[in-house]
Amino acid sequence: MCLSSLASRIPVRFQEPMRFWNTWGVGGIAKAVMPITSESALAEVRRASSDAGDRLFILGEGSNVLVLDGGIDGWVILLRDDPSPPEIVRSWGNSVEIRVSAGYPLRRLVNWSVRRRLSGLEFAVGIPGTVGGAVAGNAGAQGRSIGDLVSFVRTLEVDGTFSDWGKGDLTFAYRSSPFAGGTSWVTSVGLVLSLSSDGLVRQRLRHFASLRKGQPKNSRTAGCVFKNPPGGSAGLMLDSAGCKGLSVGGAMVSREHANFIENLGDATSDDILKLIDICRSRVRDQFGVNLELEIKVIGDGAL
Fold first, then answer.
1. Which GO terms describe its cellular component (predicted)?
2. pLDDT tens digit sequence for 153-168
């Protein structure tokens, strides 16, 4: 079975501009874009892809990625906007384990947990994307990361079968997980949160939200561009190197936070890549540090 034969049962957008499907609003044409929320449909698509040799890319809400201008010669699976609410699996003492689907928006999960006085995810306030993307990239802030909370992960493999990972099978590191390479697709996740008081949870939420006040709002970005080097801050290095306000074409380093690049309206991915190179070069010259990308570059021509 080929992927095209599934188009009668699963919505497909052929020759779709990728600028509509990522937070930076850039990127060329994809062969096809297919939104999916159910595990069964996702497995069917992956089996069909494996049988036919079609290239597949999985994307959540499109944050933390840069899609190249050359587009994607393959099918893009959108695992996002899953309406299935999180469910409580078990509880003991003050601990509560929940299961949540990979396509569930992270911002909605934070709100869901706050309403139930469940603490642990407050650091994620303001982090865009889906739960699956957050786990694959071990998203975090202020020394906290989602990998610290993960109790189990269910993934879909290349051959269309599912794998279940227990906590002992998982190793998370700074912005890294066993699923960062994209071979195993995260479909659902277990998280252990702590039952707390409403006042304390909301206090922690306000605290972490206040730490994001210096980040750009109401502009097209993809989140932090570079990882923090060991013992340092990429944002502070970029600021010290005079990167704020630098621009190439329609892309500009944010004047609010130097680790963000804004699409001013007509940026291309090539503009962003050139600006990334300039910023990286300035930091290397001044600090002797080669900043690593936190964003993932995808599309034809990506390394």
1. cytosol
2. 999 999 899 999 999 9
Q: Which residues pair with 220 in a beta bridge?
A: 263
* Residues 234, 241: Cα–Cα separation, whole Å: 10
pLDDT digits (tens, 9 = 90+) for 107-138: 999 999 999 999 999 999 999 999 999 999 99
pLDDT tens by residue, 207-218? 999 998 889 988
- Predicted confidence (pLDDT) per residue in 55-102, tens digit: 899 999 999 999 999 999 999 999 999 999 999 999 999 999 999 999
Cα separation of 91 and 191, whole Å?
11
Given this model, what pLDDT does residue 164 score?
Answer: 98
Is the CA virtual torsion 277, 278, 279, 284 positive or negative? positive
Report, as residue numbers or ranges, the catalytic residues.
175, 224, 294
Domains in the chain, CATH or no CATH each: 3-79 (3.30.43.10), 87-210 (3.30.465.10), 234-298 (3.90.78.10)
Angstrom distance (rounded) from CA 29 to CA 18: 6
